[in-house]
UniProtKB/TrEMBL annotation:
Gene3D superfamilies: Periplasmic binding protein-like II. The keyword Transport applies. This is ABC transporter substrate-binding protein. Keywords: Signal, Transport. It comes from Skermanella cutis. InterPro entries: Bact_solute-bd_prot1, SBP. Residues 1-22 form the signal peptide. Belongs to the bacterial solute-binding protein 1 family. Transmembrane segments: none annotated.
Length: 428
């Protein structure tokens, strides 16, 4: 009885966008799919779903879910724990397969192995849990360094290759533009809110300083080290200097809003921002370029955190075969190409990085190919079902440092002790 009540309450909280297509054929069924809504994501998802519905005659409902990945995961977990069939196809983060696997069907029974072979092997491997293919790669992501090429030229500054150089250049241009009349100009914006996006940003800072990945592949907690403290100390120095105080409450869209309005020199964000920054009504259209994120000093390295989203089918779907067919269509080469061209979504299919139309729409896909295929993974595989707690403890420690509540060394020492308890003495 409790599960029924819980499912009913969750159903009332979901936002359904309506049926996108209906043929009226009694032999056809209704499928629901959750789609993200960062930038034009929801619109691009709708178009793909409409094409599948028109071709098959099935009906589809799109479900709008929270942009905040933590809130979205919490919603998914509640729905699946209640064995709710309200969502048939889930859009899941690259770090969630291990967390949600028990509630998802094995897609090996529905996906041609030849189709699976087209996708990046590392991402497919990420989506296999206990020898079950619990999700299909839909689009991948890696952090990118957006910059105002016109302002670098104006001030005679080269593209920074280290975070230290970025800090200096950002300050010089910020001060120059403010003196010229734009008192809203900032040097750098990023995702500083206490959420998964901060884990992503901070992992890039750590890895660029050769400071590890919080927990290594053997399960050892490595986050409390001098290089990590240096990375976070530098990041904290940006707040109220080259970044606004409000950056500690920014997610992706807040940062893009500042940058796209012409009020930031540099921005860390995902590839989705590219077509929006270059839209006809964008104030920075034609003024922006993209490069690798800076290194953590001359001995550091360029790095980017692996992101991306997968599609999975709920065990509690009343029509799993039809839902799997929708997943097969949306993750196909043809649909991934369309999404790359119109929305800037990075394909998970290698061949599309050599496609002329894809490269014409996203020139940096070719130049930054190695960034996308070699992005650093968050420690979700080794920490398993505890990853979400590990990430939350990490982003809270980083946020405390950015907001000036404590210094980096203290935050990392406290974090190490907390993670040791979470891991039950190093046993994940």
């Amino acid at each position: 009885m409790r599960k029924i009540v819980a499912a009913a309450a969750l159903s009332s909280a979901l936002v359904f966008s309506g049926t996108v297509h209906a043929q009226g054929d009694p032999g056809k069924v209704a499928i629901s799919i959750s789609c993200g809504s960062v930038g034009i994501e929801f619109q691009v998802c709708r178009t793909g779903v409409e094409a599948w519905a028109k071709a098959t005659g099935h009906r589809v409902q799109l479900v709008s879910t929270p942009n905040d990945s933590n809130e979205r995961l919490a919603l998914y977990q509640q729905l699946l724990a209640a064995k709710s069939g309200d969502i048939d196809v889930f859009q899941i983060d690259v770090v969630w397969p291990g967390i949600l696997a028990n509630h998802l069907i094995d897609l090996r029974e529905h996906i041609d192995p030849k189709m699976l072979d087209q996708h990046f092997e590392a991402i497919v491997r990420n989506d296999i849990v206990d020898d079950r293919l619990v999700a299909m790669p839909w689009f991948t992501d890696a952090g990118l360094f957006y910059y105002r090429k016109d302002l670098l030229e104006k001030y005679g500054r080269p593209l920074p290759t280290t975070w230290q150089e970025m800090t200096e250049t950002a300050r010089i241009i910020q001060e120059g533009e403010r003196a010229a009349g734009n008192d809203r100009m900032w040097g750098f914006v990023f995702q500083g809110r206490a959420f998964e996006g901060l884990t992503v940003n901070a992992l890039e800072w750590l890895d660029s300083f050769n400071a590890g990945t919080i927990v290594d592949e053997d399960g050892e907690i490595t986050v409390n080290n001098p290089r990590a403290a240096d990375a976070l100390t530098l990041a904290a120095s940006w707040v109220n200097d080259i970044a606004p105080q409000g950056v500690i409450n920014y997610s992706e869209e807040e940062g893009r809003g500042v940058f796209q309005s012409g009020n930031a020199v540099f921005m860390r964000n995902w590839p989705y921002a590219w077509p929006l920054l270059n839209a006809e009504d964008s104030p920075v259209r034609g003024k922006v370029a993209v490069g690798q994120l800076p290194k953590g000093g001359p001995d550091g390295k360029h790095t980017a955190t692996l992101g991306g989203w997968q599609l999975a089918v709920s065990k509690y779907s009343q029509h799993p075969e039809v839902a799997a067919d929708l997943v097969r269509y949306l993750t196909s080469l043809e649909e991934q190409k369309r999404r790359a061209v119109v929305g800037g979504f990075n394909p998970t299919i290698d061949a599309l990085y050599k496609d002329e139309e894809v490269l014409a729409a996203n020139p940096f896909f070719g130049d930054l190919y190695e960034v996308f295929v070699n992005a650093v993974a968050r420690p979700s595989r080794v920490t398993g079902v505890r990853y979400n707690q590990v990430s939350a403890e990490f982003w809270n420690a980083v946020h405390a440092t950015l907001s000036g509540q404590t210094d980096a060394k203290t935050s990392l020492a406290d974090l190490e002790r907390t993670l040791d308890r979470v891991s039950r003495g190093g046993r994940w």
